[in-house]
Design a protein that fits this description.
alpha/beta; 5-stranded mixed sheet; 7 helices; 38% helix; globular
Length: 257
């Protein structure tokens, strides 16, 4: 079985694929201070919940935008899974797509993995909106090539910046408000964060479509996608497993090579 690891700035996702389907998927907080031994304890406990063991895993693939986490994730695979993991971004890993930007090596691994998955799932040109620590808007051509994108602050990052930067403003949860006009500080902040973010999504998507000049499907993914996609017609589909499916596809492509 394959262990797919997607390590983001806020969360790290572990998923087990048995060659036909995703058998299990877990999300944990990303901690750059975790050692390979601590990862092993965590993963062992997660596998136990599904009746799996390290012996069931014979391959691994990693995508991370957190360089400090990569060494220990590699060591986890080598020491406890007895395999050398594929790492998205390594020169010998074939993604199967072209990357049309000035510095392909600077594009986040998760964004390229999403491009692989979205091209395999949806027809035509696509905008992938990935809601994470940052919210990214990535353009994938009808041929499957990565064409660039937009990076905006994530909604939780915006909420925290508002709290940290204004002495009188509290820390608030991001949630949909019934009315745009807030009658107190907290609902006013929540409205600005939620509906302001809806405006950001709709505005950027509209400008990308206008500039690209072709019909485009908009696919949302990431841990924070769910609260927003039902509130705007700018998002056509929500696909929470997009990154993990991309990792599985990349592993399968390279295993056959």
């Amino acid at each position: 079985m394959l262990l797919a690891i997607d390590a983001g700035n806020t969360n790290i996702v572990f998923a087990v694929h048995d060659g036909k389907e995703i058998r299990a998927e877990w999300r944990a907080v990303t901690k750059t201070t975790r050692t390979s031994d601590e990862y092993a304890i965590l993963v062992k406990q997660l596998l136990d919940t599904r009746g799996l063991t390290f012996a069931d895993i014979d391959a691994a693939i990693i995508a991370t935008v957190v360089p400090a986490a990569l060494f220990d994730l590699r060591q986890l695979c080598k020491r406890y899974l007895n395999c050398e993991p594929l790492v998205v971004g390594d020169p010998d890993v074939n993604l199967g797509i072209n990357v049309h930007v000035a510095r392909p090596e600077a594009v986040g691994a998760d964004r390229l993995v999403n491009a692989v998955a979205v091209h395999a799932t949806y027809k035509g040109a696509v905008i992938v909106v990935d809601f994470g620590t940052a919210t990214t808007f990535d353009i994938v051509s009808a041929k499957g090539d990565y064409e660039g994108g937009v990076i905006a602050p994530g909604v939780n990052l915006s909420a925290e910046a508002l709290h940290q930067g204004a002495a009188m403003l509290p820390r608030v949860a991001v949630q949909r408000t019934q009315s745009v006009i807030g009658k107190d500080t907290v609902p006013a902040m929540q409205s600005g964060l939620f509906w302001g973010y809806i405006g950001l999504i709709e505005g950027i998507v509209a400008r990308i479509k206008e500039e690209y000049g072709q019909p485009m499907t908009v696919v949302a993914t990431g841990g924070l996608a769910s609260p927003f996609h039902k509130q705007t017609s700018a998002i056509d589909h929500i696909d929470p497993d997009l990154t993990i499916r991309g990792l599985i596809l990349i592993y399968e492509r390279n295993a056959k090579a």
